[in-house]
Each structure stands twice: as structure tokens, then as C-alpha cells.
Specification:
The chain has a domain at 20-84. It has helices at 20-31, 56-62, 70-84. The chain has 3 helices and no strands. It has 96 residues and is mainly α. Helix 1 crosses helix 3 (70-84). It starts with 19 loop residues before the first helix and ends in a 12-residue tail after the last helix.
Length: 96
Amino acid sequence: MRTLVTTFCAESPAGREVRVIDMANLVNELTGNPAGLRYIPRRKWDHKSRLLASIEKARRLIGHAPQTDFRLGLEHTVCWFRDHWPKSSPRRGSDW
């Protein structure tokens, strides 16, 4: 049986969960990666099907309140890497 490991969810400003498969598809879309996704069986120790990180402590201690939604944040991240990743890096594809 082949499944996508879905042990990470990020909290968006609206408090919505983001599934791993949705995040992976979005990364591929934003980077123009044609490779697609590879589905693998869960590892023995991978018991959780969901994990939602909370920013409640940061909100309480320093007043942090996210202003950028998940997609826009990923778009900014991809743009930053395109602008700052060394062109000579062997890990960087030529399509960037």
C-alpha cells in the first residue's frame, strides 16, 4: 500500500491546516517542478496522521499574529531563493 506521509500541517493566519500533499503540490507549482510526487509507505515510527503546530505561545508572549497566508508565504520564499541562491550551486536546477 502506498500512502503520502502526512505528519505536518502548518497553521495559516486563518488557523487552517495545510496538508502535506497540498503543500508539496503547491511547491511544485510555484517552482515549476515537473517531477510530481512520490508516494511511499509510512515508516514504522510514523504513527501520527496529523500534527498541527500552534503559535499560541508566540502570540501570548510577543504578540505575534501571522499576516501572510500560506500560499503567499511560499511564493515569497520561492522568490527569495530565486534571487539569492547562487547560480553556481550544483543543487540549483537550470530552470530557475
